[in-house]
Amino acid sequence: MLLLKAKDLYVEYLGRTVLDIDQLELYEYDRIGLVGANGAGKSTLLKTLLGKMPLQHGKIAREGTFTYLPQLDEVIVQDVQDYAIVGKLGIDRVQAETMSGGEETRLKIAQALSGEAHGIFADEPTSHLDREGIDFLVNQLKHYSGALLIISHDRYFLDQVVDKIWELKDGKITEYWGGYTDYLVLKEEERQAQVAQYNQYVAERERLEQVMIEKKNQARKLDRKESGRKSRSESGGRLGHQKSQGSKQKKLHNAAKNTKRRIEALGEVTPPEAVRNVQFRQNKALELHHPFPITGHDICKRFGDKVIFDHVSFQFPLGGKIAIKGANGAGKTTLFNMIRDRESGITLSPKAEIGYFVQTGYKFDRNQNVMAFMQENCDYPVSDIRSVLASMGFTQQDVRKELSVLSGGEIIKLQLAKLLLGRYNILLMDEPSNFLDIPAVEALETMMRKYTGTILFISHDARLLEGVADQVYEVKDGGLVRV
């Protein structure tokens, strides 16, 4: 059954083409992962297909009903038909202001799965979920009988749930069969083909340019010889030789022109993207010398009858990359807030300067351009700032944009880059990889490893934990245990 059909879909925003799709169809058996860079228009596509954004041009025919799990929206607590799902997701029917980010996400999922719809459109549904929540969601969606169209940066999740990938790039959709790992293999094959094509193009262009130079040089030598002969009186025999020389000159000049036309016919082949990197150097004024700049001694914390920490002690080492994990609502973010606020029992080095990335960090005034925003409270030169932004997927044109035109994912990337380049020596990062595209997550992983200061980060991303953390702690049953 055809559930949705879009034709001649076109969306423009502030003079930039966001969507330019000739035709798109979604069937009841489709299980599709929608991928693309932050700002490519993935969320816009979902909202447009669902009728939640006005259609600028084209036609959309919807034959089925759809449930939508949005990104970065406020959770609306409403009745959920299937309370068994709510229980398995580990949430109670409580007010949104008392929920952690993971609990909010779980409620959204419960609302979607309990409805009766032909399909589910989801925008980063695993964000803020712990591993148990992700595994439960995977199992539910595997047995879901309707269509799926899911934006996600979680490779494990996509591999488990989808069998087709739609890549959105430059407003167009390219379809790849298989899960996300299959898509990566195909993309790497495309990249290798691009590298081979570019190398072949460069070699052929250099060969032709050398041929053209040689032909021109040969023609110039003959021109000089002919000029010398004209200054002398010539016999009839010599005149015949001169005609022969002139004919040869003409052929050489024509060969040079033909070679030039062949060079022009080659056109321009786009080179593969260069890998840009930055070395982090800590401000001397912010250097820490205490071997354990963050310590906790016999800390206790409770909310009402719920015990979060019960006589917990810890020492986090200088320069460490410390991962904090645990179930949704266990108290991970609470620990970060206690460190930031220097609550009773928490001791920080006197020179500690804390930078904090939070789950709701996308809410701020956007009336500023990208480079001006990045240069605030930053000691790094513009060249280093540009390198970091480039590694996170920002182009030269993006750097000149106003913050108001950036997507939610781009804003988060910008805040992470600003944090890493800020005047801090301790970073607290709460789910930093949420809402980032895969290349940005990989760039973030590299930058976190190279950062010279101390980082505490909360994450359920197994790859980020393995790639960055040198110590992992779990918040569980009122304790903080190293695992």
UniProtKB/TrEMBL annotation:
Gene3D superfamilies reported for this sequence: P-loop containing nucleotide triphosphate hydrolases
Domain ABC transporter, chain residue ranges per copy: 4-195, 294-483
SUPFAM superfamilies linked to this entry: P-loop containing nucleoside triphosphate hydrolases
Region (Disordered): 214-257
Family annotation (PROSITE patterns): ABC_TRANSPORTER_2
Gene Ontology molecular function terms on file: ATP binding; ATP hydrolysis activity
Keyword Signal: no
Top-rank taxon, per record: Bacteria
Biased segments, Basic and acidic residues type: 214-235
Keywords linked to the UniProt accession: ATP-binding, Nucleotide-binding
Bias type Basic residues, positions: 248-257
NCBIfam families: ABCF_Msr_all, ribo_prot_ABC_F
Protein name per UniProt: Msr family ABC-F type ribosomal protection protein
